[in-house]
Amino acid sequence: MGVKNLWSLLTPVAEKMPLWELHGKVIAIDLSGWVCDSENFNQNMSQKNMYLRNLFFRTCNLLLIGVIPIFVLDGEAPLLKYGAIEKRINGNKAPTKTHIVRKRLNSFQKQCEFLLNIMGVTCVYSPGEAEQLCAILNKNGVVSGIVTQDSDCFLYGARVVYRNFNASGNGSVDVYRMESIENNLNIGRNKMIALSLLCGCDYDEKGVTGIGKDTAIKFLQSLDDDSVLDRLRHWRSDTVLNSATMDIKSQTNEIKLELKIRNKAIENKSFPSEEIIEEFLKVPNYPKVSAKWILPDINAFINFASAKLCWEKEYAIEKFLPLLFRWHLMYDDKFQANVLMTEIIKKRVNKGIKCYEVKWNNYKITSIEPQTAVQRRYPNEVSIYEDMHTTSSKKMKKKITIHDSNLLEVTNKLYSMNISKKHRKSKKINEEKNSVKGPLDQFIMKEKIKDDSLTLSDFECDSVDLDMSDIINGIIT
Prior knowledge:
Structural class: alpha/beta
Number of strands: 10
Distance between the termini: 81 Å
Radius of gyration: 37 Å
Oligomer: single chain
Strand content: 5-15%
Shape: elongated
């Protein structure tokens, strides 16, 4: 979906990023992409409404790592796209209608919207394609980036795109930054629009016959991004190109390449399509969007999960409660969520974030919550917990310090006694060494030195008939 072969061109600048690095960001999500992915995956699965299940768990994952998602739903399909939609729905069959309404997708979107509303997440309808509004929100700084599989989001003006969203394990996304694309690949937004005209996109799937991405991009990279669309518009009237056509010997390699593309492109009288250019560059009126997460509705979710996902009540509650707990900690200034933290059990670290394991009233489960979130809602309880554990830690440290000090004193005394005895032995051995004459005397002396060598263990056993604990206790008392 999007511009043909654009993702393969952008692969060199893609960055793999763990999902937790999205913490604290507001992102826009092209909902239709997630629905299509789940439906394709669900063909061989027994789970009912896989797209709703995946939507729930993916959204939970984002909310629990501190991301605020804004889901963007497709509005009315542009007239330019009707032909492409007909072809996708009917294949090679003749179209049944001139005006196509994406009934199946719209039905999916309505159910997704209902689920997201239960979870307290923002949904907004785009005037046209979802990726168009996602791109506008990103370009205007409302969101930090957009989650989509559609490459034409760049043509609509997106600056940061998260592709190949993966929530399993620690989760990851591939990040594409327009700044990096412009600096490293010399491809800007207008060049991408030109590429869509030459190679094909959702609004013109054929493009220019006989022109591939390598040929097209080699030509486009030689131009300035600001002037590339006007260059295509003036191909028919370009005097330099028209003159070069008549004088083959004067043609440079650059002119030959451009003529090759131009001559094939202008065979289509409507090239370049101003409708396609306008679709990507226009700025439609769009609804005001606010990034917020409101109170999740657990009772509504229990009913929804039973009807749409065939989940048991206990399972639905277990999966939904973490959202309610986190929302309570972050946003529940009026304590509307009907949950209350009753105990901080212990400190934990989750994906590099300092957390507490906490217990909740009326629920058998515990949850792992960021320390900053718990501190926000329960500052007094955190203060008491930290004071208790700090005091306990100091007492333990003091006890250990006293113990270590006494043990060191004992060790030093033993070592001193050992050295003193060794010194006397050494003096005696040296005197005896002076009297050694022959090989036999040397051997006897060597064995004697072995027998007389003292180790700390020898010294303790022979000279000090006390258990180490008795020694320490005697010194302490």
